[in-house]
Amino acid sequence: MKFSNTLVYWYLQNNRELPWRKSKNPYFIWLSEIMLQQTRVAQGLGYYLKFTSTFPTVFDLAKAEESTVLKMWQGLGYYSRARNLHFSAKHIAQELNGEFPTSYAEIIKLKGIGDYTASAIASICFNEPTAVVDGNVYRVLSRYFGIKTATNSASGIKEFKTLAQTLIDPSQPGTYNQALMDFGALHCKPQNPLCVSCPFSDSCVALEKKLTKELPVKDKKIKVKKRYFNFLVIKTANNKTILTERTGKGIWQGLYQFPLIECEKTVNQKEIIDSEEFANLFPDETTLSLFNSKEIVHKLSHQHLYTQFWIVETKTLKNADILWENIQDFPVPVLIANFLKAFEIVK
């Protein structure tokens, strides 16, 4: 119990003032945990406040259109989180009468909730002693115990979960879990951890053996795929354009984009005009110009998008039915949102 006691004592002196920590409402805890996956607290805080203001209950979120949810999520990335959040909100509201599941075993059945999120909600809201394991936890435990097993391997995931479960304080599991996460985020940081003032400095294996920079260990990342995107930004004489919703299981499902020509390499203006996709879209005379002089490289987890935005001016176009003044109403990927901001400045 020494580890957990020391950790909780540190937390009581150093914990962050965060709005969701003022509540045991599982809806608010759930929102915060989903939003903070792959997202820093500083970035996610504003989104959390906007969400809870717009959707104060699970019923409010369930009644919203998916496009509205995605628009509010715009800029956070990993949009499957928002779609799963919305799906589960409808399930809770419609199938469970608005009652959030009260145990880890039931919480983890909700779409978009894995072991970490289920453990966090179950421990914080319902006092169930289920240990959380996220990037912060991997880092703290691997350094303190000197564990060199890769955190993203099957054996590593099992090893760290088992260890974390043995350390949790069953009398205050929610406080302990939040303490461990905060300690990793604020003290045992990825770069430049505060080892000199660390309450575990007399028993940390990584500090003793000078392994702080080597731990935690991760297996090599998946090879990054390069993709070459050419967006056709249409402007008609009556100030209309085309946006289409992305479908399927790929990136940006449910978000909107300009007509896209994807190529195997970077292409020039002549190659765009000569393409079959361009000819099919624009049978009549058009003016084509490149907006960005240098390719925009948009980095996702396992792919880099080398992107060019082509401005296409034409008198009329049959499928152009969206007024430019309404374009901000549509949820779009951050790549296109950034373009729209730049385009607004120069047009």
UniProtKB/TrEMBL annotation:
Protein name: Adenine DNA glycosylase
Task performed by this protein: Adenine glycosylase active on G-A mispairs. MutY also corrects error-prone DNA synthesis past GO lesions which are due to the oxidatively damaged form of guanine: 7,8-dihydro-8-oxoguanine (8-oxo-dGTP).
Organism: Polaribacter irgensii 23-P
EC number assigned by the record: 3.2.2.31
Family statement: Belongs to the Nth/MutY family.
Cross-referenced InterPro entries: A/G_AdeGlyc_MutY, DNA_glycosylase, Endouclease-III_FeS-bd_BS, HhH-GPD_domain, HhH_base_excis_C, HhH_motif, MIG/MutY, MutY_C
Domain HhH-GPD, residue spans: 35-186
Cofactor: [4Fe-4S] cluster
Residues annotated as signal peptide: none
Keywords, sorted A to Z: 4Fe-4S, DNA damage, DNA repair, Glycosidase, Hydrolase, Iron, Iron-sulfur, Metal-binding
Catalysis: reaction(s): Hydrolyzes free adenine bases from 7,8-dihydro-8-oxoguanine:adenine mismatched double-stranded DNA, leaving an apurinic site
Record text on cofactor binding: Binds 1 [4Fe-4S] cluster.
GO molecular function, one term: 4 iron, 4 sulfur cluster binding
NCBIfam families linked: mutY (TIGR01084)
Superkingdom of source: Bacteria
Enzyme class, spelled out: hydrolase
GO terms for biological process, alphabetical: base-excision repair; mismatch repair
